[in-house]
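User: Show me a protein chain along with its predicted structure.
Assistant: Here is one chain, sequence first, then structure tokens.
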Amino acid sequence: MSLADRCRWLLITSFGLGCSPWAPGTVGTLGGVLLAITLQWALPEHTLQAWGIAALALFAWGCTQSQFVARTWPKEDPGAFVLDEVVGYLVTVLVYALIVDAPVGATAHMVAFFAFRGFDVLKIQPARKLEDLPGALGIMADDQMAGVYAGVSVWLAMRVLGW
């Protein structure tokens, strides 16, 4: 495997988290949590912009990886491909933060993680339909819709629970 392909593999698998034998999507989402928290810590005055730029850049790059995915894994949507979960989690916290217009705390990150995983598994329309898009775009797009659903649901849950 070339150096470029190794770098692709690292990003697509969230530094190997997607290779977990148990729930690779859930474990891979932890890469998104770590990225979100790192950006929030490193850029506290520009967290929303950092999350947005990272989500957009990773989404766009991930959508271009169809050929690499096809030659690396035998499945159309391999479990090890968790970049979609990383970006979906960023979308979740970004949507939540935009709604509340406040920093995202530890409790909100925890609720966001579980909400995103729930909506990613449920694939509520149009997320399920987005999954049918060709190549890596289909792998990536449904998780972004799940992230939008999750971000709104985190806001509702936090509001209802008074957190």
